[in-house]
């Protein structure tokens, strides 16, 4: 029989504990969203039954808020930002890895610094810039900030994948007279789909869950995102926990669905290049 190493057991235990820590809050939100307020505090870990089950939180969300508008705003900001990050990031990664020019290394280092320095440190300057551009209380302001936030990581991940593509494929296409734009669109992009899925997951979740920039850049009526719209159910003295948990459940659903769809590509993207 194969021997089981203690180190491998410890790794699996650590992974199981981390899995419980990551999934636990999501499970708590889902099961308590369908329970009465009294049941939430009396037995937060218990499943809803015939006596505690209720959907009043969802009724309050749709009756007392413009949740559909909040959801549409979040979806618009996330989809547009994600599309721009992938498009610009892929083109920039292609340029930095394929062509050698003066300042190539310095530019790559500059982009790497963007990963290490949190963009929230520049919140005051960003707010002043948006005020000068008359973009406060617009979705455009959020999109511009999120694109700037996600580009450094996208360029780094996509650049690593592009470097693994055999140079012979590009040289053969050039010998056939294929333009650089056609090489990028027909050869490079299809081959880096796992990397694109990885970038999509890593950038989509922070954008969708962000509260900081919607709070300071787009707090006005009609421009609020899901995370900001949920705050109206949280008061200084009284909090409607049924509505809060119902809102969070509705906000989590699309992220879970997209993660399940892209999980195969995400795992492939994370492990690609680990073994030569």
UniProtKB/TrEMBL annotation:
One of its GO terms (biological process) is transmembrane transport. Keywords: Cell membrane, Membrane, Transmembrane, Transmembrane helix, Transport. The chain crosses the membrane at residues 12-34, 70-95, 107-127, 139-162, 183-208, 243-262. Gene3D superfamilies: MetI-like (1.10.3720.10). Residues 71-262 form the ABC transmembrane type-1 domain. CDD domains: TM_PBP2 (cd06261). One of its GO terms (cellular component) is plasma membrane. It is found in: Cell membrane. The keyword Protein biosynthesis does not apply. It is a multi-pass membrane protein. Signal peptide: none annotated. The keyword Transport applies. Pfam families: BPD_transp_1. Belongs to the binding-protein-dependent transport system permease family. This is ABC transporter permease. It comes from Microvirga aerophila.
């Amino acid at each position: 029989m194969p021997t089981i190493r203690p180190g491998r057991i410890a790794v699996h235990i650590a992974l199981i504990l981390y899995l419980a820590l990551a999934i636990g809050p999501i499970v708590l939100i889902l099961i308590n969203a369908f329970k009465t307020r009294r049941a939430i505090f009396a037995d937060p870990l218990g499943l809803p039954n015939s006596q505690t089950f209720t959907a009043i939180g969802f009724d309050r969300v749709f009756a007392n808020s413009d949740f559909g508008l909040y959801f549409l705003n979040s979806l618009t900001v996330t989809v547009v930002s994600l599309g721009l990050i992938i498009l610009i990031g892929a083109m920039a990664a292609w340029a930095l890895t394929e062509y050698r020019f003066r300042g190539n290394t310095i530019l790559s280092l500059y982009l790497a610094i963007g990963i290490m320095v949190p963009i929230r440190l520049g919140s005051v300057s960003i707010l002043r810039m948006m005020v000068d551009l008359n973009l406060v209380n617009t979705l455009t302001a959020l999109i511009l900030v999120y694109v700037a936030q996600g580009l450094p990581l996208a360029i780094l991940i996509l650049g690593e994948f592009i470097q693994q593509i055999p140079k012979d494929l590009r040289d053969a296409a050039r010998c056939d007279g294929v333009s650089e734009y056609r090489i990028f669109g027909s050869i490079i992009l299809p081959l880096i789909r796992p990397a694109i899925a990885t970038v999509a997951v890593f950038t989509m979740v922070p954008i969708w869950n962000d509260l900081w920039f919607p709070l300071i850049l787009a707090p006005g009526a009609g421009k609020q995102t899901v995370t900001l719209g949920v705050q109206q159910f949280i008061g200084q003295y009284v909090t409607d926990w049924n509505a809060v948990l119902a809102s969070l459940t509705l906000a989590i659903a699309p992220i879970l669905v997209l993660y399940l769809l892209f999980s195969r590509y995400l795992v492939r993207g994370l492990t690609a290049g680990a073994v030569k």
